[in-house]
Amino acid sequence: MKYRILDADGDYSFGKGSQNITYGIYAVAQAIKTRLKLLKGEWWENLEEGTPLFQEILGARGNSDRQMIVDSIVKDRIINTRDVIAIRDFSSEFKNREYTFSCIVTTRYGDIDIGDIDLRL
Q: pTM for the whole thing?
């Protein structure tokens, strides 16, 4: 897998040719993070693609229900990323409208530690 590198602001990098491309395990890690941050309906080419923050997450009742829903959505977004084989050691916390999770993702290139990604809900 190859993927365009993101700059410090989270935008795609341009202007340096092949230096703007990353490969293998780093590409998969970046693809996972990008897929999680893309909101459903945000990408004009496929309005069904993305994390359904407004459609499914914010309307859920109670913290425990919301955490189960978000866990399921996050795992689905990760496992359906190209070159991802499995998710291990998944843990999450939902506190004060902040959802944090970490996990180990097995890819065809090796394992990735996806540590403490936070999504503000």
A: 0.84
* Cβ partners under 8 Å of residue 5, min gap 6: 12, 13, 20, 21, 22, 30
Domain that holds residue 41: 2-120
Between CA 17 and CA 101 the distance in angstroms is 34
**Number of structural domains in the chain:** 1
Cite the beta strand spans of the chain per DSSP E: 2-4, 21-23, 84-95, 98-107, 110-120
Bridge partner residues of 103 (DSSP): 114
CATH at 55: 3.10.450.40
Higher pLDDT, 18 or 121: 18
